[in-house]
Amino acid sequence: MRERCRVEETIYNMQQTGPENLQVISDFDMTLTRFAYKGKRVPTTHNILDNRLLIDENCTKKIKKLLNTYYPIEIDARLSTEEKLPLMVEWWTKVHKLLMEQKIRKDLLAQAVRESPSKLREGYKMFFDHLAEQNVPLLIFSAGIGDVLEEVIRQNHVFHPNVNIISNYMDFDHTGVLQAFKGQLIHTFNKREGALAHAAHLTELKGRQNVLLLGDSLGDLTMADGVSNVQNTLTIGFLNDQVEERKELFLNSFDIVLVKDETLEIPNFYCTVMHKTA
Ligand code: TMP
Ligand code: MG
User: Fold this and answer.
1) 8 Å CB contact between 202 and 139
2) How would you class 40 by CB atoms within 10 Å of its CB: exposed for 0-12, middle for 13-18, buried for 19 or more?
């Protein structure tokens, strides 16, 4: 924490108005899911599609090559968001085009998720269940693939009614084959636009002036930009990769920075504290 006092004051202020004034906005890949498990990277929603059921070997190779080119740019501390922006659009556009060429079948997505080593962070059940019990809305805002994301949380039995999702959703034709992606493309650095565009529809979030925001990228900090009349915001950043290079940047941007923490212990602690005084 850069400013411990500010964090304590924010939590205190949030406690005073209780869970009925709280909303949680969280990124998905590498924020609600783990970054690594037993020394291996955990797949993002895009990478879960890397299954022969859905895409061929040639496509896998091309998507991996794009990942190796663009992911280092996404997390490069020396580049500005403005410099990264067009390159992210390029990455997402190329990958989505490749996926569309594969004629992915909707009815095989659930199996691909089951067969993948995808993993939500330790403590996820408490996190999702607690927010549902307290009727605190959880908005998951992901530049990943919405259909896959939904399946991951469904298979982990935490797709509760308080969960809303903004993401890139697949558009299937009448035979259930992927033909396009719906709506405006969401990538890591245009979440602000998505937040502003979607906020109006999420009426249940109105009047909840306290925001707990979780992310693993500086781009995630704009996810709450669609919320009007915010009184208190507490931001928690998961610093998973390029730790030394990005530590300063993260500490200057998030209220709390968790370094290589594969759990949801701190967000869970926060939720418990909110509940106790309610
Ligand atoms: P998020 O907004 O839920 O974190 O999802 C975005 C992440 O997806 C971002 O960190 C990069 C990652 N990604 C892949 O892993 N593979 C891909 O092909 C693409 C386009 C993105
Ligand atoms: Mg992420």
Assistant:
1) yes
2) exposed
Residue minimizing CA distance to atom 15 of ligand 1: 44
Residue 182: both structure tokens together: 């719906």
173 noted as active-site residue? no
Whether 188 lines ligand 1, by a CB cut-off of 6 Å, is yes
Is 27 a catalytic site residue? yes
Place of tokens 């990958």: 95
35 lines ligand 1 (CB under 6 A): no
ipTM: 0.99
For residues 174, 175, 179 and 183, what is the CA-based torsion angle, rounded to 10 degrees? 40
**Residue 217 CA to ligand 2 centre (angstroms):** 6
> Any idea how long the chain is?
278
Q: Is pTM, for the whole model, over 0.95?
A: yes
Q: What is the CA radius of gyration of the chain?
A: 18
Show the low-confidence residues of the chain (pLDDT under 50): 278
Which ligand 1 atom is nearest residue 31's CA? Answer: 4
Q: Provide the token pair at 4.
A: 């411990």
pLDDT tens readout for residues 5-20: 999 999 999 999 999 9
Distance CA 12, CA 146 (A): 34
